[in-house]
Amino acid sequence: MLEKIKHKMLRPRQKWEKNLIVLWFGTFMAGIAFSLVMPFLSLYIDTLGNFSTRQLNIYSGFTYSATFLVTAIVSPFWGRLADRKGRKLMILRASLGMAFVIGLMGFVTNVYQLIFLRLIQGVFSGYVSNANALVATETPKEKSGRALGFLTTGAVSGTLFGPFVGGVIAAVFGYRLTFLITGVILILVFLLSAFFVHEDYVPANTENLKNSREIFHSLKNTKLIIGMLIATFLIQLGNFSISPIISLYVRELMHNVGPITIASGIVASVPGIATLLAAPRFGTLGDRIGTARILKLGMLFAVIVFIPMAFVGNVWQFGILRFLIGISNAAMLPAVQTLLAKNTPAYATGRIFSYNQSFQALGNVAGPLIGSSISGMWNYNSVFISTALIIFLGFFWVNFSTKKSSS
Predict the structure, then answer these.
(1) C-alpha 252, offset from chain centre
(2) What is the pLDDT of residues 18-41, one digit of tens each?
């Protein structure tokens, strides 16, 4: 046994193993970079002008949504280009473009410049998705599952730690320097990807691919697939409806006193911890009692947790409820992915999952806009009530979509 371990440690790493290590670090740093500024973005906007509460909420919603709106539009174009030119080029495009755009956010003088740069940021999306695709194509098939599972932990871990790291950096160095540090991180990711990631890419033959109408006509359970796509939209809409107001709500709960950015970072991060811990367990449970049942239970649990968020008296209560939302996310989002995978033929899996990404991005756009509009018309508390209502309606939709499913 010891000889086997020693041989494994001493043998030269294969190309796919080197790619995996570099891209794990890349996705980890990209996850940190993408989520680093989230806890204080609304607070940063507040420094760019003299805004009323309503104006601040609306501008925050537009700023959050801008990136996802452009991502939803340009993703199909980048996908077609990746089929012709390879995944590595898309990885380099995304990391270098994001480095400069996010770095420039530290120099804006008004909110319109920030919104514009957030729009441009959406153009350079796709590092993590293309890293997954490159690992999937370059890794031996018998080892691809383990490799992709390992790679996924990079992005999840980075996204988990990003808000906390961003909150600490913003508290110590200020908002603007945080954007510059993020840009430097992404330049490092670009350099590592450029020099240490290797790809033997063969352009895909697209002549025999079915079009979208043929794909949906060939599905055995079209209602369930469409249902899951809309469920993804509703789940993301609900989750992201509170994104623009989290730091503002934390500031209100702390009465504008104390380490607000650090507290906001912790509150933004805790759902990720719960999701990371709970998701594998829900996956195993779903195989035993049915994935659709896990999805519905997760949505009901989310409704139960979102409602008391509107009535918390301090940031600790809010943080505990945010942790519980992470548990509901661990039940909802992976369950949707599993139901899509179980009910989609192999030749259509890539296309269906790309549609699911588009619906996810649309939810990411609509959520902040709805949340900021509701908080602008009423108050922060009403956002949590409306989010619970959205998820509750989503529960009935999922129940209808999965009525005849045995998954």
Answers:
(1) 26
(2) 888 888 888 888 888 777 776 677
The span from the CA of 239 to the CA of 339, in Å, is 20
3-state secondary structure at position 201: coil
Q: Dihedral sign, CA of 352, 359, 338, 123?
A: positive
CATH of 212-407, one of 3.10.310.30, 3.40.190.10, 1.10.3470.10, 1.20.1250.20: 1.20.1250.20
pLDDT digits (tens, 9 = 90+) for 106-128: 999 999 999 999 999 988 877 87
Site of tokens 């018998």:
142
Domain ranges of the chain: 15-197, 212-407
- Which residue, 239, 246, 243, is CA-closest to 332? 239
Give the Å distances, CA to CA, from 112 to 108, 118, 351. Answer: 9, 10, 35
Encode burial over 20-59: b for 16+ CB neighbours within 10 A, e otherwise. Answer: bbbbbbbbbbbbbbbbbbbbbbbbbbbebeeeeeeebbbb
What does the alpha-carbon distance between residue 137 and residue 144 come to, in Å, rounded to a whole number? 8
pLDDT at 5: 45
Torsion of CA 65, 127, 146, 32, to 10 degrees: -60
The pTM score is: 0.69
- Whether 15-197 and 212-407 share one fold: the answer is yes
Check if the beta carbon of residue 98 is closer than 8 Å to that of residue 121: yes
* CB neighbours of residue 305 within 10 Å: 21
pLDDT beyond 90 at 90: no
CATH for 15-197, options being 3.40.930.10, 3.40.350.10, 1.20.1250.20, 1.10.274.10: 1.20.1250.20
**Best CA proximity match to 182, nearest among 62, 95, 99:** 99
Q: How far apart are CA 139 and CA 293, in angstroms?
A: 34
Query: Which of these, 149, 99, 84, 92, lies nearest to 126 by C-alpha position?
Result: 92
